[in-house]
Write a structure and sequence with these properties.
Layout (H helix, E strand, L loop, with lengths): L7 E5 L8 E5 L5 E6 L4 E3 L18 E4 L8 E6 L2 E6 L4 E6 L5 E3 L10 E4 L5 E5 L4 E5 L11 E5 L6 E6 L4 E3 L1
Antiparallel strand pairs: 1-2, 2-3, 3-4, 5-6, 6-7, 7-8, 8-9, 10-11, 11-12, 13-14, 14-15
Length: 174
């Protein structure tokens, strides 16, 4: 029915029988909320929540983020207990965090200068760029071990070796 302020609530059926659609409208005549017979809902505006929790339940609950400018579309998905940000446009997982809390990125992880990758319970191993220098900082107990079959240090353009350490402990300086 219509109310004196112009808002309306109506049910609509497509075959003259039971209603398969419920619409809530505003005084301008625009439909603000539509609920279909499959219980899907369409909002014609922003949704504001003042509660602290939004719960979405289902076999594979998701939030779809559709870019109407025809750029990349994304879904945030709970996929069998794994958290995923899925790039719908490119059909790939941009970020996947599995049930063991291992994270897989489809692209680079870019950090601004002076922001650090910090490892360990006390963040005692750091890798970062301070704007002028690239730094590996180990401030924990023990030593920093690099376990490899050999190490090669090269100049900035990667066109010449400056130091080569082989698996036998031999060092060759340029």
């Amino acid at each position: 029915g219509h109310f004196s302020n112009g808002t309306f609530i109506g049910t609509y059926g497509d075959d003259g029988g039971a209603a398969d659609l419920l619409r809530f409208g505003v005084h301008s005549g625009d439909v603000a909320l539509t609920i279909n017979s499959d219980l899907s809902a369409t909002f014609a505006g922003n949704i504001t929540m003042n509660a602290s929790t939004l719960t979405i339940s289902g076999t594979y609950p998701r939030i779809n983020l559709t870019d109407t400018n025809n750029n990349d579309d994304f879904s945030i998905i709970n996929n069998d207990g794994s958290f995923a940000i899925f790039n719908v446009t490119d059909s790939l997982f941009s970020l996947l965090i599995d049930t063991s809390n291992n994270a897989t990125f489809a692209g680079n992880v870019d950090l601004p200068d002076s922001k650090k990758i910090q490892l360990g319970a006390s963040q005692d191993l750091k890798l970062y760029h301070d704007g002028s220098h690239s730094i590996i900082q180990d401030s924990g107990t023990g030593v920093l071990k690099i376990i490899t079959s050999g190490v090669t240090f090269q100049n900035e353009s990667a066109s010449a070796n400056t130091l080569v350490l082989d698996s036998s402990g031999n060092a060759t300086f340029a």
